[in-house]
Amino acid sequence: METKLFLLILLLAFIMISGSFSATFTFENKCPYTVWPGILTNPGVPPFPSTGFELQNRASQSFNAQGWAGRFWARTDCTNTEKFTCATADCGSGQIGCNGAGAIPPASLVEMTMNGGANRDTDFYDISLVDGFNLPLSVTPQGGSGCKPVSCEADVNSLCPTELSVKGPDGNNIACKSACLVFNQPQYCCTGQFGSPTTCPPTNYSKIFKDACPQAYSYAYDDKTSTFTCPTGANYLITFCS
Ligand SMILES: *[C@@H]1O[C@H](CO)[C@@H](O)[C@H](O)[C@H]1NC(C)=O
């Protein structure tokens, strides 16, 4: 009897450590247009079931993943003439699937690490505008105690200074670059002598992003106010344009 109990505990411990609790990720498109979510899995973790797909206005789609880590974003204004290309957040694969390619900045990102922390029992998630912004998005944990939703609901494109803006064919801003991308200077990229949390303060440009979306990362060392956690086992709703 005791041996059986011991084996059961061992099995449960193994399941928890290996992250075998599958989580459901639901993607929902509240944009008044079609988007094409892209997914990049970090090295060394199990792949996500999709690397990119089409999501029409008001549509939603769910996937199951376990022990996953990586990032989500959404491509806009995609066309498939000779090859698949998108006006914003393209991954350059030439296909709907990103197949291991990440978003070409600027792109609003959702970053996720399941089964993190010392006991591998914590999910970490955030919204990052470190690579710029293309559309509003949010992460809403479903279930799990003390889990907080995180969102970047502001239309940063309308607040984007000219020197950072990406314009569409009709002259409207369709995305907003980070200052690091545009100026490639250490104080904006947190490199060189600015390469640590204590030596890379917010800048006038990162503040534009932070003021618009206080819960999102606005530059590389913006950790304090931008990282969220949830006990592993929750499901997640990723919403675009909300
Ligand atoms: C940010 O600061 C730089 C350097 O002082 C200045 O050249 C730039 O015009 C400022 N931009 C904004 C949007 O405030």
UniProtKB/TrEMBL annotation:
Assigned keywords, A-Z: Disulfide bond, Signal
Cleavable signal peptide: 1-22
Pfam families associated with the record: Thaumatin
InterPro entries: Osmotin/thaumatin-like_sf (IPR037176), Thaumatin (IPR001938)
Record-annotated disulphide pairs: 31-241, 78-86, 91-98, 147-230, 152-213, 160-176, 180-189, 190-200
Protein name (database record): Thaumatin-like protein
Organism expressing this protein natively: Coptis chinensis
Organism phylogeny: Eukaryota, Viridiplantae, Streptophyta, Embryophyta, Tracheophyta
